[in-house]
Design goal:
The protein has a single domain, classed as 3-Layer(aba) Sandwich (Aminopeptidase), CATH 3.40.630.30. Strands 1-2-3-4-5-6-8-7 form an 8-stranded mixed sheet, sandwiched between helices. The protein is globular and about 45 Å long. Helices cover about 35% and strands about 35% of the residues. It is of the alpha+beta class. A hairpin with a 4-residue loop joins strand 4 and strand 5.
Length: about 190
């Protein structure tokens, strides 16, 4: 109990995407494509970045964290254009239950293409197959059902709603919870092949 063996962030690939480690060189694309956009951050906990320099400063912090095997933070790159279109991350929510919590965001220009669920599905597989997780969960603002659809498409199951429990840029909001267990992931994988 409590001792987890994780690998941390490594490059992953899907049909259309490369999930890769971020560097300070990504600051401009990140700023232009989503990090400065209030529409993207509306339902998130962080505010839009005022300058590219701010993004760069944050990226240099993120880079230092990559040595930590419990740190999972990817840039989502579109293979066809080599453009950076968003991020997806996971954190250890509870070591005893071996639970990870996932968060993601993607630039407006790439919404409704199934990119986010493609990335999420890949990350779920990586966390279960190569790291020590038994449960993966995520939460979204009840007024942002599109995020819930992403979770459903990636095989996560609705677990319930908490009223006025989540804080984001809109204030105190209702949170909708999704999760997937390793055993259900394995069953789903067997049925899909």
């Amino acid at each position: 109990m409590g001792k987890m063996e994780n690998i941390g962030t490594i490059q992953l690939q899907t049909e259309r995407l490369i999930l890769r480690l971020l560097t300070t060189k990504d600051a401009q694309q990140m700023f232009d494509h989503w990090a400065s956009d209030p529409k993207v951050t509306k339902y998130l906990t962080w505010k839009p970045y005022p300058t590219v320099k701010d993004v760069e400063n944050n990226l240099s912090e993120y880079q230092k964290n990559y040595i930590d095997p419990d740190y999972f933070f990817w840039g989502i790159e579109e293979q066809a254009t080599q453009q950076l279109i968003g991020t997806i991350s996971a954190s250890v929510a509870d070591k005893n239950t071996q639970t990870a919590e996932i968060g993601y965001c993607i630039g407006q220009n790439w919404w409704n293409n199934g990119y986010t669920s493609e990335a999420l599905e890949k990350v779920i597989g990586y966390l279960f197959e190569y790291n020590d997780f038994k449960r993966i969960e995520a939460v979204h603002d009840a007024d942002n059902p599109a995020s819930g659809k992403v979770m459903q498409k990636a095989g996560m199951t609705y677990e319930g709603m908490t009223h006025q429990r989540l804080v984001n840029n809109r204030g105190i909001v209702d949170g909708v919870y999704y999760a997937i267990l390793k055993k259900d992931y394995k069953r789903r994988k067997t049925n899909n092949t």
